[in-house]
Every structure is written in structure tokens, then in C-alpha cells.
């Protein structure tokens, strides 16, 4: 008969385990590994358990970081694969385009010249015409008509018609209007100082008369320090009026005019 004590479980190292449990939780609260005061089995167990937990937590952090890095790497790999596919497509399009251009160039190089249509003989170079022999001059005095004949005389009717046509042409030419070349000129007439009478200066300028000269609009343009210049326009016939002579004529009025410059010159 079996003894009842044989079926009971006896925890012989209960006090050691309880001590190790206590030391473990104390180290967890402090955040540092247990430091046994005495070299006891409970302290060693608690220390080993603490190191195991720290290792597991570290491995969990490594796994999380690795998972984040892996997702980032996967995203970058996917974007690189898409870019690679786009580049392959672009390269393929370029290759096909280059192939078509090479084919067209090859066809142009070997394209034969258009053949002559059937029934149409090929053009042959024109045969050189034989030179006509120079007419032999006859030294016979009998072939020379020294006195002329009635057939060589100009007919009076033809002469009248020719003279009439010449007269009509001369009349038409005289009625045709002759194109007169003209120029539009803008002159800058500068006084000596701000005390110059600009109205009097304009009056003496407009008093200048030349065949083919027509004065136009004018205005006073400020220069500096209260001084103004007279800007006046005129139209001249190129064949009748010399621009240099016009400038010299204006500058002859030395009481008012210091200098004359051409601001604009346009053909009409």
C-alpha cells in the first residue's frame, strides 16, 4: 500500500524562489539589475531573470526598428522599380524611333532614279549644228547699186505714221506726273540762355523762305536750368533745299540761336 505522502508534491526550494521573486520585482522598480548582498541562489536567479527580460525588450525594439526600416526600404524599392520601368519604356521608344529613321535614311540612299516612261525615248544631247559658211563677198562691182533704187526709199505714209506715234509718245510722257522726293525734318534750335526770347527766335526761324521749304508745327522742349529749345518741323524738297544750307541760315541769327541740330530725318 502506497503512503499518502508519496503522492504529495513537496516544494523544497520555495523560500529560494520567493526570495528570487522579491529581488526581481525590486530591481524592476529600481530599473537596475539586482545586486545581491550575499552570493545566494535567489539573487542569482533574480539577476538572470532580469537580464532575460532586458534582452527580450531589446530584441522587441530591434524587431520594431527593423520592421520600420524594412517598410521604408520596400517603398524605395517600389519607387525605383517604377522609375526603372519608365526608363525602359523611354529607351524602347527611342530605339524604335532611331530604327525607323535609319530605315528611312537607308531607303533614301538606295532609292533608284526614276526610269523614263515607256515609249518616250531618252533625251539625247543635241547634235551640234554645222556652222553656216560665211557668205562669200563678191568682188564684182556689178552687184553694188551705187545710185540706189525706188524700193529702198522710205514710203511717205510709213514716215508720217512713225512721226505721229513719236509725237503721241512725247505728249503722254509730258503729261505723266513727275515724282518729287521730299523729306520731313525735325530741327532742334537751341538758344544761348534762359533769357532768350523764344517767341522772337521762332519768328525769325519761320521768316526764312526757300523754294521747296514748308514750315510745320513747333514746340518748346525743356533742356536744363530753365533753358528751353525750339523743336520745329519742316518739309523740304530734296532737289531744291539743302539741309546744311538751312542749318547755316538759321544759325546766322546769332542774337537768338546758339546751334541747330537735326532731331529726326524721314523720307516722305
Share in helix: 40-55%
Rg calculated over all Cα atoms = 61 Å
* Strand percent estimate: 15-25%
Overall 3D form:
elongated
Widest sheet: strand ordering: 2-3-1-4
Question: What is the succession of H and E elements?
Answer: HHHEHEEHE
Distance between the termini: 148 Å
Mean pLDDT: 76
Structural class of the secondary structure composition? alpha+beta
Number of helices: 5
Secondary structure: number of strands = 4
Quick one: biggest sheet? Answer: 4 strands, antiparallel
Low-confidence stretches: 116-127, 136-142
Describe this protein's structure.
With 268 residues, the chain is an alpha+beta fold. A hairpin with a 2-residue loop joins strand 2 (213-224) and strand 3. Helix 1 crosses helix 2. It has helices at residues 14-30, 41-110, 156-175, 198-206, 243-251; strands at residues 182-191, 213-224, 227-237, 257-267. A four-stranded antiparallel β-sheet has the order 2-3-1-4, with helices on one face. The longest helix has 70 residues, at 41-110. It contains five helices and four strands. The protein is elongated, with a radius of gyration of 61 Å. Helices cover 47% and strands 16% of the residues. The termini are far apart. The model is unreliable at 116-127 and 136-142 (pLDDT under 50).
Summarize the structure.
With 268 residues, this protein is an alpha+beta fold. It has helices spanning 14-30, 41-110, 156-175, 198-206, 243-251; strands spanning 182-191, 213-224, 227-237, 257-267. The model is unreliable at 116-127 and 136-142 (pLDDT under 50).
Task: State the main characteristics.
47% helix; 268 residues; four-stranded antiparallel sheet; alpha+beta
Amino acid at each position: 500500500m502506497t503512503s499518502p505522502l508519496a503522492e504529495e508534491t513537496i516544494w523544497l526550494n520555495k523560500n529560494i524562489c520567493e526570495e528570487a521573486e522579491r529581488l526581481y520585482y525590486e530591481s524592476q522598480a529600481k530599473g537596475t539589475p539586482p545586486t545581491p548582498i550575499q552570493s545566494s541562489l535567489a539573487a542569482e536567479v533574480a539577476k538572470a531573470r532580469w537580464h532575460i527580460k532586458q534582452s527580450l525588450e531589446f530584441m522587441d525594439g530591434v524587431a520594431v526598428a527593423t520592421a520600420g526600416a524594412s517598410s521604408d526600404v520596400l517603398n524605395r524599392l517600389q519607387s525605383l522599380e517604377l522609375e526603372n520601368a519608365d526608363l525602359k519604356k523611354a529607351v524602347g521608344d527611342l530605339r524604335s524611333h532611331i530604327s525607323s529613321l535609319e530605315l528611312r535614311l537607308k531607303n533614301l540612299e538606295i532609292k533608284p532614279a526614276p526610269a523614263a516612261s515607256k515609249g518616250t525615248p531618252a533625251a539625247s544631247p543635241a547634235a551640234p549644228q554645222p556652222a553656216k559658211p560665211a557668205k562669200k563677198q563678191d568682188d564684182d562691182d556689178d552687184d553694188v547699186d551705187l545710185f540706189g533704187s525706188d524700193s529702198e526709199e522710205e514710203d511717205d505714209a510709213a514716215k508720217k505714221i512713225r512721226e505721229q506715234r513719236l509725237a503721241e509718245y512725247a505728249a503722254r510722257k509730258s503729261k505723266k506726273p513727275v515724282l518729287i522726293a521730299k523729306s520731313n525734318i525735325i530741327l532742334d534750335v537751341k538758344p544761348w540762355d534762359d533769357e532768350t526770347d523764344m517767341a522772337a527766335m521762332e519768328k525769325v526761324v519761320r521768316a526764312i523762305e526757300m523754294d521747296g521749304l514748308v514750315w510745320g508745327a513747333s514746340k518748346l522742349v525743356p533742356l536744363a536750368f530753365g533753358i528751353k529749345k525750339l523743336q520745329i518741323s519742316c518739309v523740304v524738297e530734296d532737289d531744291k533745299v539743302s539741309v546744311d544750307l538751312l542749318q547755316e541760315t538759321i544759325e546766322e541769327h546769332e542774337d537768338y540761336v546758339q546751334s541747330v541740330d537735326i532731331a529726326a530725318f524721314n523720307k516722305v
